Predict the structure of UDP-glucose 4-epimerase.
Amino acid sequence: MKVLVLGGAGYIGSHTVYELIDNGHKVVIVDNLETGHLEAVHPKAVFYKGDVRDRSFLNQVFQDEKVDAVIHFAANSLVGESMINPLKYYDNNVCGAKVLLEAMVANGVDKIVFSSTAATYGEPERIPILETDKTEPTNTYGETKLAMEKMFKWTSKAHHLRYVSLRYFNACGAHVSGQIGEAHSPETHLIPLILQVPMGKRSHISIFGDDYDTKDGTCVRDYIHVTDLASAHIKAVEYLMDGKESSIFNLGNGVGFTVKEVIDVARKVTGDEIRAEIAPKRAGDPAKLIASSEKARTVLGWEPKYTDIESIVESAWNWHKNHPNGFERN
Ligand code: UFG
């Protein structure tokens, strides 16, 4: 099949492109390179630099490339930034999705898989979290992703389009080839920040709060390898190609680790003492987020391969130690 990947130069997008091409599919990438990297674009993919909000550009791409389905990653995804600049998130995420849907409807493309997030749930009612649980985001980022889900839902009813929304928990790790990995600027995610300590890029890791109601007082998260996320996207496109109905799936390992446990794993993997300091809580951080991914397993037949946290941190370390400046020339 031929798939249009919007945001295919970003972290999860580039890993999904690698997986698609490894599985023999044709890929067209659209990315504005605002947060994505040209170096992360797979050499066998067709690449267009452009913005998802640019209607005439998108129409041209759909006319030139007859694609079977779309995978949509092109969005802003920083929780903190979304609270300071909410309209940036409404513009790129919500308005971007609107323009994309208009172009899909106009060009008769009727299948889309897109990135959603655990942030759509807000403070969970129970653990593990099911797709049917209450969605009450505590930040603008999660709110815009929920708005996108609703836009897909109502548009699908009116225009016979089908969608799969994938709610990721904590994406981490890097491609086995060592060619691509996580490279955000600024970096805000726990695992890459911890690994900056053994790389000599920061003196210590700050632990945001140690009096949460968890086993050691630090936040619990469900860490899922980016290649496992990538394989779920392929399963989701195949599911839509089989004519199945629109749906929403959580993607996580179903196991939670505290911040302190992740730091301990990183100490073991890197052999570095990794100094840690307790710092104030970060606003809006739920104490515990763990996915139930039963639905993705049973309906999509998805099976994560990186099920232990050590192999996940090892794969991240393999990328970061060889690319201390991400995709910039070292
Ligand atoms: N943390 C620290 N110190 C740091 C960075 C993070 O203690 O320097 C803690 C956070 O407080 C949190 C955990 O490590 O408890 C993980 O933090 P990340 O920033 O790596 O990830 P989040 O869980 O905050 O965010 C992830 C995704 C978001 C998504 C969110 C859903 O990255 O896109 O889950 O809640 F919105």
